[in-house]
Design a protein that fits this description.
The complex is a heterodimer of chains A (1186) and B (305).
Chain A (H helix, E strand, L loop, with lengths): L1 H11 L12 H7 L8 H6 L47 H13 L18 H14 L7 H16 L4 E4 L1 H12 L18 E3 L4 E5 H5 L10 E9 L13 H19 L6 E8 L2 E11 L7 H4 L2 E9 L26 H11 L1 H14 L3 H14 L13 H13 L15 H14 L7 E3 L13 E3 L4 E2 L6 H19 L6 H6 L5 H4 L2 E6 L12 H20 L3 E7 L5 E3 L12 E8 L8 E6 L3 H11 L4 E4 L5 E6 L5 H17 L1 H6 L1 E3 L4 H4 L3 H24 L7 E6 L21 E7 L9 H21 L9 E6 L10 E6 L5 E7 L2 H11 L5 H34 L3 H14 L8 H13 L10 H14 L7 E3 L1 H4 L7 H17 L10 E3 L16 H21 L18 E5 L21 H9 L6 H15 L4 E4 L10 E6 L5 E3 L8 E3 L10 E4 L1 H12 L3 E6 L5
Chain B lengths: L5 E2 L2 E7 L14 E8 L12 E7 L5 H8 L16 E7 L8 H10 L26 E7 L2 H17 L20 H10 L4 H31 L12 E2 L2 E2 L2 H22 L5 H29 L1
Antiparallel strand pairs in B: 1-2, 2-3, 3-4, 4-6, 5-6, 7-8
Classes of the chains: A alpha+beta (1186), B alpha+beta (305).
Family (chain B): Belongs to the RRP7 family.
Protein name (chain B): Ribosomal RNA-processing protein 7 C-terminal domain-containing protein
GO biological process, one term (chain A): rRNA processing
């Protein structure tokens, strides 16, 4: 069918001769790959191409269809599932199977409104296949299992053979261990009093088990992380008394037990040799554990090569401490008169008590629900891509919590203790259901208590309480980290319920937690500057509290300027068994990460309470200090408010943060806090406000122009429409229209009412257009003497080589400097051109020319105004879009790619990031938008995937239908079928309003070489972003590299003027606008930039088969360089007349090369030098002549 | 590097290029190879017998350049002739290889200056470049006064090429002073020329419009005549329109399109889901499509791996 359509398409599309130009660029594209990295294989093997399959299932016609991806395994549905619905939690697709089937079983009620027509599921098939593929790829290989098993058994033997220790006093125990074994007991804070009554002892462990992902066989290798094998040593109950759960006694005994094990493992070194260290379990200071790592010196062993660590965790039998005593609401650390609950402490005890129990639960679940293990693995991938883990720093929701959540919800959690998930779910359903649970249910307001009758009161912290084991699974989560988790799951859920785009890549394939892509502002606060006492054992808890304080202050102070805030504490320490636990070091920092709200972040005034509300006012003043002031606003209200001032939103936020930290946490903290955000001022040359003002001015001028033209009397025909058609009018042009003279005017398309008096000949149409423009210009300028509004009108010529392209335009310049270029849109041109294309008797070149002319017509008069309109709308919706577009344009220009890619393509690339932000949320700052666009470009497999920008989806207007996607794909397939070697269309860029996809990229713009270079550059930029992390210097991404080019044309100083302002030394730059007008009036359009531009364009046109020229599209950039590479296709071939490039005969010594010629490179360079004349200062030749 | 002095049936004449300031650091010599042979077009023209055909003409070559170059004393150094015959004129051909036939048309063009009236709709806008460049590696025809001159010159070039003589590409100073400059001046002039004066444009447009009017009237008259007078085979051309005269082509087309649309609509109304069998067929069609699509998707997923 595809082929069918392709052939049909071929008929519609221009004759294929156009693409078969004898350029030999098939050779060229491969030979260029030394500078363009993604070669063919690479492109094909990459895994991140967008899946693009359409599932066959279809529920359009009747509701008897199976709505779940053709998963018609009705046999797996047992009848006991009725009533087990917790449907307020799960209402999307996951439910559909059940839902629909129940309907079948019971009555045929017409309530199928929930069932989406699954024709929209065009990607889901591919999602499933790719998830399956992922699941085969990620599990940790079991080839080294034997050696690891041996090692574990070894450990077990050692631990079991440890000599029993009679209980002895704390003092004695500590001293004995230190003296005889050089081991320090890792007592958590507070350390036991030396005169404590209880005694520490060691006895043979009750059990030794391997637990966790290794035991469950769900260990995965995402990234290069080390796999940790958890080994639980259950301490015998004989060591403990009933009351040991109180006042850290249990933890002290546990620490001693651990120290004994540590001593033994360290001292009995069998092969393989290991190193033994202390660390804490997930950063929980109460729970020290042992970390057994392979010794680096022992590189030969299997263990050293296996990237596995073993973590030895002491645990206690479940029944030793009664459940009800350690409920989250109980107090277990008794001090005088205080009875506040100690949920964290209690949960830490429950963690140790329930290890084996959870092991059983997870194994049991894996047995009953076949997809459980796979869903756990998917969860691991999802969490790790988002930087979430079980540690206190990582948010406290990691692999264990994920598995526990799944297990609990598979057994319970619904109303009446019924399970929320069904064991028949497959892994993607289970995954999606879990994401949905996390996204929809706010566990901090609506705690979930499973396996228990009595509900726990909501205490404001997230709560997922396992009543059978008495543990709040989320006990390590703070409100902030919980918010972050639900934010991530909401984003993913939105993605998973929207079938119209690739779901796999953003969900599992993207490294989401890149600081500058994920967050808009990152700050680091050194811990010492916060005034924390660094020399106590308790710092970890103190730091936790401080982080919470900072979080609450910033949350209050920033209000709706931010959408997410996250305060991360330093990671957990690892220390030697012979040393005391290290204190917080000078380097440790608190990391504050903010996501901005694009619309509110730049707000200058924070309004507080009115003057009458005294209580609130006092609190407001208390909070803001001297910044709070009483102001009277225009609407007459007198309220407390705070005023800020800054040029960039991120800078403004930084100011506020520093002020708040200063006020609430001391000067030191504010002084030493370092903010990492990326300023764009130096790159874009103008700040946001100037830029915006400049565009507003142009908009005003445009409105005025429109009104003036519409009000003009005396035109032969009425005006039907006037459309803006330029990036300057959608606030996305690189330079500010009024700040930098010498730019081309902003395009405007004007259409007159239809009239049958227009001539029937394309050339005559062009002349008629000139006549209209003459009339318009006369009317606009002569109506009251020297020109209304001081308008200056001139008619210009373009496309002088062609008779059927648009030939004329009218330049209108305002005294303010705003200038517009008016072209006349005449609908009949299209008909005439189409007729010419259809005319079989016409010579092929004439038809080719007509095809090109038609494409140009559509671009200029139809697509570009539409594009401008769409982009204007998108810019108002996303305030950061114009900035991102400008950064991206700067990037393309600084890598000398700008002239090869139409600005519309660049704009669409950026708009894509904003319209389809998954897996992130919509970028709020230009930098985030820019970096994510680079990330997209780096991953974009343009040979196999079109870029589809759905503006309407972002506007909430429903988005594209699946039929639209099918159509786009058909177009794409057709292009690839017509032009498999990518000579003509390389990138396919379609939008919801432009299904063609080749509007902006036809005619090898960019060519394959340039597109490959774009990808290579984006990849290396992304690699830099990733490796630098917070130390990223944005400008480094914009450094022009000239190494790869064959020759460089250095422009003469007069023409090469660094930067965008075109002519610092007199020729182009005018400081005053009236001078600028005078310059235009005098007809001095020949600015250096214009001259260089005309020169390069002519040269590229002449030598299109010989060389590719790279330049910044303006005036050669700071270096004033135009770079070029030779096209290897022209290196040597049989000579003929009209080769299209200067040639020299090859030597015919052997007679082999008789009649062959090579490209005469020096002759080409000489020609360029002669034509360029005084424009070129010097030509630098890099490659050897051969 | 020794160069072959012939290529196929062409003489390969190596031309020394003047030292370029921009390329002062370059190591290799700047030369340019011209390929010359007698002009033998498929359809002989009156001048073809006394012309030479040049290939690989530099982009910035002008008639003045070639005239000077081909009379260069280096080429005659050892012949008995004291000087080479003079070139009478030069034609450049900037035609893409696809258009073989147009070469002849271009040849004729000069001749039929009076035929310009053939195509009254051809645009007559002024050129924007003072000195057009040629396509790289392009061709030119050099016409001599007599057939004998051209043969003499060709033999001289053959000898010179064999000898390895390298004539010099004329430097700026030896060219006529009225030749427009290259470099920024040329582009400046070009940019200036894209904005012709209003009066000039107005005159052009007025002239064009009157000839267009005349042309259209003539066409209309011809059409009127066509439907009254039988042609050579005795047929009368049918043209749309009222009694007063044939309709404009546009109107005729519009009427046709409207009629087509009407028919299409009718067809559509009849088809669709009116009958039961139509609904059934449609559903079957849909199923078939889905199946095909599924197959192609499976195939694509395979390809993607």
């Amino acid at each position: 069918m595809m082929a069918d359509r392709a052939s049909k398409r071929r008929k519609l599309s221009p004759p294929s001769e156009v693409s078969n130009r004898p350029t030999g660029s098939a050779v060229s594209s491969s030979s260029f790959s030394d500078m363009a990295s993604p070669d063919n294989n690479d492109v094909e093997l990459r895994e991140n191409e967008e899946g693009d399959s359409h599932s066959i299932d279809d529920g359009e016609e009747s509701d008897e269809q199976d709505f779940n991806d053709g998963e018609g395994n009705s046999d797996s549905q047992d009848d006991g599932e009725e009533g087990s619905e917790a449907s307020e939690l799960l209402d999307a697709d996951v439910e559909h199977t059940r839902h629909v089937k129940e309907q079948q079983k019971t009555t045929h009620t017409p309530t199928t409104t929930r069932a989406k027509p699954s024709a929209t599921k065009i990607y889901s098939k591919s999602f499933k296949t790719r998830v399956e593929e992922l699941l085969t790829r990620i599990p940790v290989k079991t080839s080294k299992d034997a050696s690891i098993e041996a090692l574990l058994r070894n450990m077990k033997d050692i631990i079991e053979k440890i000599r029993e220790q009679e209980p002895m006093s704390i003092d004695k125990a500590e001293k004995t261990l230190l003296k005889s074994r050089k081991i320090i007991i890792p007592f958590p804070h507070p350390k036991p009093a030396s005169n404590a009554q209880y005694k520490l002892g060691f006895a043979k462990p009750a059990a030794i088990n391997v637990v966790g992902s290794y035991a469950l066989k769900t260990a995965t290798h995402v990234s290069d992380r080390i796999t940790t094998i958890d080994m639980v040593v259950t301490m015998p109950s004989s060591l403990f008394t009933d009351k040991d759960y109180l006042n850290h006694r249990y933890f002290h005994k546990r620490a001693y037990y651990l120290a004994c094990i540590a001593a033994e493992i360290r001292d009995i070194q069998k092969s393989p040799r290991v190193s033994v260290k202390y660390t804490t379990l997930h950063g929980n200071p109460l729970l020290p554990v042992l970390l057994v790592e392979p010794l680096v010196t022992d590189a030969g062993s299997d263990f050293a090569q296996s990237t596995c660590d073993i973590r030895i965790i002491p645990a206690v039998q479940e029944a030793v401490f009664p459940l009800e005593k350690t409920m989250p609401g109980r107090n277990s650390v008794r001090s005088e008169g205080e009875q506040t609950p100690t949920p964290f402490y209690n949960a830490s005890i429950r963690v140790d008590s329930s290890v084996t129990s959870y092991l059983k639960v997870l194994h049991g679940t894996a047995a009953t629900s076949p997809a459980f293990k796979q869903a756990c693995m998917l969860g691991r991938v999802w969490l790790s891509q988002r930087g979430l883990d079980s540690t206190l720093r990582g948010g406290g929701f990691g692999n264990f919590e994920w598995s526990a959540l799944l297990a609990i919800l598979l057994h319970s959690g619904g109303p009446g203790g019924k399970p929320v998930f069904l064991p028949t779910y497959d892994c993607s359903q289970l995954f999606r259901a879990a994401i949905q649970f996390l996204a929809r249910r706010d566990l901090s307001k609506q705690p979930l208590c499973a396996f228990t009758e009595n509900e726990l009161p909501s205490s404001g912290i997230p709560m997922l309480f396992d009543g059978r084991r008495g543990l709040n699974v989320l006990y390590k989560m703070t409100l902030a980290s919980y918010r972050a988790l639900s934010h991530e799951s909401q984003t993913s859920l939105r993605l998973l319920t929207n079938n119209s785009q690739d779901q796999y890549e953003p969900t599992f394939g993207t490294h989401v937690c890149e600081p500058f892509m994920h967050f808009d502002l990152v700050a680091q606060l050194p811990l010492p500057s916060l005034g924390l006492a660094t020399s106590t054992d308790n710092t970890e808890t103190l730091v936790q509290h401080k982080a919470l304080d900072i979080h609450s202050v910033l949350t209050r102070g920033l209000g709706n300027r931010i959408t997410a805030i996250d305060v991360a504490t330093p990671s957990c320490a690892v220390w030697s068994v012979g040393a005391a636990k290290p204190y917080i070091s000078q380097e440790d920092v608190l990391t504050i990460r903010l996501s901005l709200d694009a619309h509110n972040a730049a707000r200058v005034v924070d309004r507080g309470p009115a003057v009458e509300e005294s209580a609130e006012a006092a609190s407001f003043k208390e909070f803001w200090g001297e910044k709070a002031e009483l102001r009277r606003f225009k609407d007459g209200s007198i309220i407390h408010s705070v005023i800020w001032k800054s040029e960039e939103p991120a800078g403004l936020l930084q100011d506020i943060c520093i002020y708040l930290i200063d006020r609430h946490f001391g000067q030191q903290a504010a002084k030493f806090s370092s903010f990492a955000y990326l300023p764009t001022l130096s790159l874009l040359k103008t700040n946001d406000a100037t830029y915006r003002a400049s565009f507003d001015q142009v908009q005003t001028a445009y409105k005025d122009l429109e009104n003036t033209i519409r009000a003009t009397k005396g035109l032969p025909l009425d005006i039907r429409s006037i459309h803006p058609s330029s990036p300057q009018l959608s606030s996305t042009s690189l330079q500010c229209p009024l700040e930098s003279p010498g730019q081309p005017p902003a395009d405007v398309v004007i259409q007159f009412e239809g009239n049958s008096r227009w001539p029937d000949d394309l050339r005559a149409v062009q002349m008629t257009k000139i006549a209209f423009l003459l009339k318009l210009s006369d009317l606009l300028t002569s109506s009251d003497g020297s020109g209304r509004n001081g308008l200056l009108a001139r008619i210009g010529m373009e496309n002088t080589q062609s008779e059927i392209l648009n030939r004329s335009f009218l330049d209108l310049t305002y005294p303010s400097g705003a200038s517009f270029r008016v072209r006349i849109h005449h609908e009949r041109e299209q008909v005439l051109l189409e007729k010419r294309i259809a005319d079989k008797t016409a010579p092929p070149p004439a038809r080719e020319a007509a095809v090109a002319a038609l494409a140009d017509y559509k671009r200029t008069f139809i697509k570009r105004p539409l594009h401008t309109q769409a982009l204007t709308r998108a810019s108002t919706r996303h305030p950061a879009l114009p900035g991102a577009v400008r950064l991206l344009k700067t990037w393309f220009a600084s890598h000398l790619l700008a002239p090869h890619i139409l600005s519309e393509v660049i704009e669409l690339l950026a708009a894509h990031t904003f319209a389809h932000p998954q897996p992130w949320s919509t970028p709020a700052t230009p930098v985030a938008g820019f970096l994510r666009t680079l990330h997209f470009i780096a991953a974009w497999d343009w040979a196999n995937t079109p870029l589809i920008v759905d503006f309407s989806a972002a506007a909430g207007a429903g988005g594209m239908k699946s039929a639209d996607y099918v159509q786009l794909r058909t177009h794409f397939a057709a292009w690839r079928a017509v032009d498999p070697a990518l000579h003509r269309v390389v990138l396919v860029v379609a939008t919801d309003s432009d299904a063609d996809g080749a509007t902006w990229t036809d005619g090898a713009r960019p060519s394959r070489v340039v597109a490959a270079r774009m990808t290579a550059l984006a990849r290396s930029a992304c690699a830099v972003v990733r490796s630098k992390g917070l130390d990223l210097d944005l400008e480094a991404l914009f450094k022009t590299g000239l190494r790869e080019y064959d020759f460089l044309l250095h422009l003469a100083a007069k023409f090469a003027v660094g930067g965008a302002n075109g002519g610092a030394n007199g020729m182009g730059k005018t400081r005053y606008k009236n001078l600028e007008i005078a310059r235009v009036e005098a007809g001095e359009d020949a600015t250096p930039a214009a001259i260089v531009s005309a020169f390069v364009k002519e040269m590229q046109g002449l030598y299109s088969d010989t060389a590719v020229l790279f330049w910044d599209g303006n005036n050669g950039g700071d270096k004033g360089v135009i770079a070029g590479i030779w096209s290897p296709g022209a290196a040597r071939r049989r000579w003929k007349v009209n080769l299209g490039y200067p040639s020299a005969p090859l030597e015919d010594e052997s007679g082999k090369e008789q009649g062959s010629a090579r490209l005469d490179r020096m002759a080409v360079l000489n020609e360029i030098a002669r034509v360029g004349g005084d424009i070129i200062e010097r030509i630098e030749v890099r490659s050897k002549e051969h | 590097m020794t160069m072959a002095n012939t290529l196929k049936d062409y003489v390969a004449l190596v031309v020394d290029l003047p030292a370029s300031h921009a390329l002062r650091h370059a190591t290799s010599d700047a030369t340019h190879t011209l390929y010359i042979r007698p002009h033998t077009p498929k359809l002989p023209t009156p001048t073809s017998s006394r012309s030479l055909f040049l290939v690989n003409v530099p982009v910035d070559a002008t008639a003045a350049h070639l005239k000077l170059l081909l009379a260069s004393p280096v080429l005659v150094a050892s012949t008995s002739d004291s000087s080479l015959p003079k070139v009478s004129h030069v034609t450049f051909e900037d035609t893409p290889p696809a258009r073989k036939s147009s070469r002849n048309a271009a040849n004729k063009k000069r001749k039929r200056g009076a035929d310009e009236g053939d195509d009254p709709l051809a645009l007559t806008l002024p050129p924007t470049f003072t000195r057009p460049l040629h396509a790289p590696g392009g061709t030119a025809i050099v016409v001599y006064a007599t057939e004998r001159d051209s043969q003499t010159a060709y033999r001289a070039f053959q000898r010179a090429a064999r000898r390895g003589a390298t004539p010099h590409w004329p430097a700026q100073t030896s060219l006529p002073p009225n030749l427009p400059d290259l470099g920024s001046a040329r582009y400046k002039a070009h940019i200036g020329a894209t904005y012709p004066s209003h009066t000039m444009l107005q005159d052009l447009v007025d002239g064009y419009m009157s000839s267009l009017d005349a042309h259209e009237t003539a066409l209309a008259r011809a059409a009127t005549r066509a439907r009254a007078v039988p042609d050579a085979d005795g047929f009368i051309t049918v043209t749309r329109g009222s009694r007063t005269g044939p309709a404009r082509q546009t109107e005729a087309e519009e009427a046709l399109a409207a009629q087509r649309a009407k028919e299409e609509k009718k067809r559509k109304d009849m088809g669709g889901d009116f009958y039961r069998f139509q609904v059934r067929e449609k559903r079957k069609q849909r199923e078939r499509e889905l199946q095909e699509q599924f197959q192609s998707d499976v195939q694509r997923m395979k390809d993607l791996r």
